[in-house]
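User: Last request for today: this protein with molybdenum atom, please.
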Amino acid sequence: MEERNTPKSVSRRTALGGMIAAGAAVSTPAAAAGDDAAITTIQPWRQELGRGVDAMPYGLPSAYEKSVHRRNVSWLTADTYSSVNFTPLHDLDGVITPNGLCFERNHSGVALIDPARHRLMLHGLVKTPLVFTMADLMRFPRQNRTCFLECAANSGMEWRGAQMNGVQFTHGMIHNVMYTGIPLRVLLAAAGVRPSAKWLLLEGADAAGMTRSLPLKKALDDCMVAFRMNGEALRAEQGYPLRLVVPGWEGNLWIKWLRRIEVGDKPWHHREETSKYTDLMSDGRARRFTWQMDAKSVITSPSPQAPIVHRPGPTILTGIAWSGRGALSRVDVSLDGGRNWQIARLSGPADTFALRRFYLEFDWDGRPMLLQSRAHDSTGYVQPTKDRLRAIRGENSTYHNNGIQTWAVNKNGEVENVEIS
Ligand SMILES: Nc1nc2c(c(=O)[nH]1)N[C@H]1C(S)=C(S)[C@@H](COP(=O)(O)O)O[C@H]1N2
Ligand SMILES: [Mo]
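Assistant: Here's the final one, the structure of the complex with molybdenum atom:
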């Protein structure tokens, strides 16, 4: 992993002005039949029996995909228990994050819970306090929903300037999976919420005993208590056997290893919420309760970890976009640092509060580029530039950075994280 000590900033003119005309674009994407030795060779896998169906009861990716994995940044946290690792966005396509690649953010490591001994308690301002076993929960009606989870600290290291040389590190505190779970309103109805109730306290069973306050309104609206991700049981890292799903809102509220829900009439005070999870502005005031995730997008390829490895000619640009305010409606892409924009092609499921995948197919002329993407959502909100964000929020806040990302591509197809001014 490469990192920089000094934020990198280039002017649009330096990056694009010094362009030298590259040689005539060669576009021979495929070899002519007969030229490719691999076609005539009889490789080992064509000569031997393959592995039997009993060899791998739980499947793993091909051995040739070994480099596709989560990564952490050793200097970022003092230990690996209260820490984070990052989703390898540059290696993924489509919208679903495979379970083994979902980033992890833990405050006291991963709790390993025996589901037979796990309980969910629901109490406080309710008519009947309840304690559920996992077996009890399996008898409630369930639903399926795909949602992104983004940590409020995602892209936080980029607030003062380009820092991390890879989309995995600049934007990898996000994952997008299909959850199966019980609408929280169904469980609350079973206990009978009292009229004075306004807030919930949610508590995890990890050593951190992490607790968060959540407005009852959001809980009744669309939260769920999930026990499956992408069809199989939650991974331990993601809160096995139970986690809260809070569509469109920051990851911090998505309590993992969920063990207790207390119903109250006001928010609880969390030390961390006031010191860390608030956005300090330039004038010293803080934004509080900024839970909704703003519209954001990023190009995942080309990117520093996914350079262009082919000659000029047909080139595929792709990325992800999302919004926690409303439906993602459009993504624009610029190849010249925001001077000219084209509308990208969206492909795949269009679920609200889930990742969208976009593409732009173009003929690369072999010259340097400054790649940017910009998300729009159904509320009319448009993803801002980083300069615009900083003008409003100042230099102190590192949370909720949804500014436009710039990747500089050089004539060799190598890509760097830059900021343009
Ligand atoms: N019990 C518990 N829940 C937790 C946390 C935690 O440390 N303990 N971390 C929170 C934070 S800050 C985030 S961003 C998300 C991360 O979810 P993930 O590990 O599935 O990516 O879980 C949230 N829920
Ligand atoms: Mo987080």
